[in-house]
Amino acid sequence: MSESKVILITGANSGVGYATAETIVCQPGYHVILACRDIEKGNQARFKLEATNIKGTLSVLQLDVEDDTSISKAVNLVSEQFGRVDVFISNAGTTSPGSTGRERLQKIFSTNVFGAMLVTEAFIPLLLQSSRPYLIQISSALGSVGLATDPSSEHSLPPWDEYRMSKAALNMMTIQMNKRLKDKNVRVFAFCPGLVRSKLRGDSEAAVTAQGNAGDPMDSAKAILEIVSGQRDEDAGKFVWIEGCYPW
Question: pLDDT tens for residues 12-47?
Fold first, then answer.
């Protein structure tokens, strides 16, 4: 297993995280760590994946990005078992469906910004043990200030204010991390998966499919595999999506 690339994905039991795990583990030479807040859901995802034609290997890790103790334990476990992380994919996120006001803001920023930053910072020392490390923050075009201020862009429409704010903050975090890590051989990316089937918006079918408008997360997962396999190294340090790059 030590010869396999070690890929850690937060929020890996559903949506983009699960699709990415499935896409990567179907390739040989990868060990995918399914990092999930709910260990039972993580194990269910692992069993489901192992029932398919996987060529890599899998493990499950309890990790709640909003819990510092959980983060610390997860780092220690990965350090003991693998000694490094080759690719860290920060995917856990929320739109905090069903909440409003201060509670909504606090939940969204706690997961999408504070959690993403703290868990990434905690795993950076293990990334630096890799000979070819990648750091991928799962963002959204809705967080692009450039697109939000462009009246001709479909991404400038009004809804999702709190979520947009959180992803704009995540993008700034990614920019700053790239400045710090690029000279240490870490290839840093912000990646927008687009509007895809996900429990990000809630558990109902209407929420998962965004009222039938959501695409297949496997398409985005294939683009993430391209990053992981080195096919988009020229875009390191940028805000990328399937077809190119977005303005910050």
Answer: 999 999 999 999 999 999 999 999 999 999 999 999
Largest CA distance in the chain: 51
The pTM (predicted TM-score) of the whole model is 0.95
Task: Name the residue ranges covered by the structural domains of the chain.
Answer: 5-246
Can 55 be counted among the known catalytic residues? no
Q: How would you label 79-102 residue by residue, b for 16+ Cβ within 10 Å and e otherwise?
A: eeebebbbbbbbbbbbbbeeeeee
Q: What does DSSP assign to residue 129?
A: T
Q: Which of 30, 163, 238, 246 is catalytic?
A: 163
167, 182, 199, 222: the active-site residue: 167
Query: Is there a contact between 15 and 197 (Cβ–Cβ < 8 Å)?
Result: yes
Q: Which of 29, 21, 82 is closest to 56 using CA atoms?
A: 29
Please tell me the distance from the alpha carbon of residue 51 to that of residue 28, in angstroms, as a whole number: 16
246 is catalytic: no
| pLDDT top residue among 203 and 122 | 122
Side chain identity at residue 5, one-letter code: K
198 or 42, which is more confident: 42
Check if CATH label 3.40.50.720 holds for domain 5-246. Answer: yes
Q: How many other CB atoms sit within 10 Å of the CB of residue 141?
A: 21
How large a percentage of the chain has pLDDT more than 70? Answer: 98
User: Please, how many CA atoms are within 13 Å of residue 228, restricted to the half-sphere of its CB?
Assistant: 28
Structure tokens at 15: 């949506």
